[in-house]
Amino acid sequence: MAYVSRMAAIDGRSGYCNSNSTFYSKRKPAPLPANETLDVTTFISARAHHGTIAYIDASTGRRLTFSDVWRAVESVTSSLADYGLRKGDVVLLLSPNSIFFPIVCLSVMSLGAIITTTNPLNTNREINKQIANSKPVLAFTISELLPKLADSNLPIVLIGSGTGKGKIVSTLEEMMKKEPNQNRVKERVTQDDTATLLYSSGTTGESKGVISSHRNLIAMVQTVLGRFQLEDNQQTFLCTVPMFHIYGLVAFATGLIASGATVVVLSKFDIHEMLSAIGTYKVSYLPLVPPILVALVNNADQIRKKYDFGNLKWVLCGGAPLSKELTEGFMEKYPGVTIMQGYGLTESTGIGASTDTLEESRRYGTAGKLSANMEAKIVDPDTGKALPVNRTGELWLKGPTVMKGYFSNPEATSSTLDSTGWLRTGDLCYIDEDGFIFVVDRLKELIKYKGYQVPPAELEALLLTHPDIDDCAVIPFPDKDVGQFPMAYVMRKSGSNLSEKGIMDFVSTQVAPYKRIRKVAFIGSIPKNPSGKILRKDLIQLATSKL
């Protein structure tokens, strides 16, 4: 009876329920398995699909069929079990994108062991810090990255060819050749067991290990499949984003293999290799971060003359909302290609909101509608009160993809997850009357000028309308008189002589006095994480290092 009453109180347009101040997803619910004894690898492999080629190496053209992949997973799983890997053990994967990346992840998780990934660009110090925190018992890496594990004393399985110093116990190739042991005793793995330990981007502070369960990943897979509806015809995705990051892991190392789609893998991002692969492999879906989308628009004439976009139908963009100018500019330059956007966090297994059609993407500036099975609240950061439609506050999310917590960090867990499972995203947002989420800014990144709150994203969006600015970032600069004031890091277009004063004057005529930019520095490129978020803490450190 209470459920019927709540449903009656939900607004059909916005999804907002007056009785509990909660927004409900308007997407078709994604079905979730009731069987508690289930790991994500088994769940994915059991799905019926009609695909033939699972992965293609963009550089070499090497292909893995779906039967190749699942045979390899069985063999590697058997090898790991024989080695002594058990449920709950942590395995470190230090590797660039590879057609073998998913095989390692799926094999580890099928045993109930936990996969933790790290950025190959990280320093030895950063990698050792993650090793000290996550305590892996085994590492997979390539020969070129062996020096980064030199101080760890970890047993290593080598991916690919090559040699080097380290405690190498086997190679992935040897493991893949092993005849699967059909008689091995399998440990009971439940949906609630931990599957991955990914480290959040740390845009505003120390990186933390995010604990995601098999249930989280299963719900993610179902959401991905429901969003793209790929079962009816063969589609090809180009993996341009790092698989060690939640974006890449969600889509390419786990989610899409359940659909029968083909994934073309770039080992490292190179825009010319990416553009060439679109035509060579008849790519239909292209995931991007906003800076690459900007490059495609700015250089569209040369790109269209040189590269084949005949099969490209969808561009998937995440990391930051897209402006009207960028969205329309792209669609004008690349007719027939639709932009889809997404919003998610490592803490929500990459799931949160999305635009799934051209019409939805034309709600400019939106992060999209709530993903299937998700609920949201907009909470006033000062009072803790849940707010209705078109009111700005912190976005809270709840659903089957929300993490279990932070690894060995109960304080951070309790400050991010409340006792009923609500995830505090740290993003200032509002949800409009049609259920679209708009991200105003990061809560922790607001600049406080004389008590006024200044959202950096607002000033960045304004700066990007200047014809001589390619990219920018706005940060808080400390000041004893006003607390903080906005400072801009600006990447000028080639050949531009735009001055600091010119930038400050441009902004001052278009914003309230407290929002004016009072300091400018020019920079060759804006530092960003793999999902396209500005690393403001790096710029703040740069700006304040001489104080």
UniProtKB/TrEMBL annotation:
InterPro entries registered for this protein in UniProt: AMP-bd_C, AMP-bd_C_sf, AMP-binding_CS, AMP-dep_synth/lig_dom, ANL_N_sf
Keyword Zinc-finger carried by entry: no
One GO CC term, this protein: peroxisome
Keywords, sorted A to Z: ATP-binding, Ligase, Membrane, Nucleotide-binding, Phenylpropanoid metabolism, Transmembrane, Transmembrane helix
PANTHER family: LONG-CHAIN-FATTY-ACID--COA LIGASE, PEROXISOMAL OPC-8:0-COA LIGASE 1
Domain of life: Eukaryota
SUPFAM superfamilies cross-referenced by the UniProt entry: Acetyl-CoA synthetase-like
Involved pathway(s): Phytoalexin biosynthesis; 3,4',5-trihydroxystilbene biosynthesis; 3,4',5-trihydroxystilbene from trans-4-coumarate: step 1/2
Transmembrane segments: 244-266
Organism: Lactuca saligna
Family: Belongs to the ATP-dependent AMP-binding enzyme family.
Domain AMP-binding enzyme C-terminal: residue ranges: 458-533
MF-aspect GO terms: (E)-caffeate-CoA ligase activity; ATP binding; trans-feruloyl-CoA synthase activity
Protein name: 4-coumarate--CoA ligase
AMP-dependent synthetase/ligase domain ranges (all copies): 45-407
Keyword Membrane: yes
Biological processes annotated in GO: phenylpropanoid metabolic process
PROSITE patterns: AMP_BINDING (PS00455)
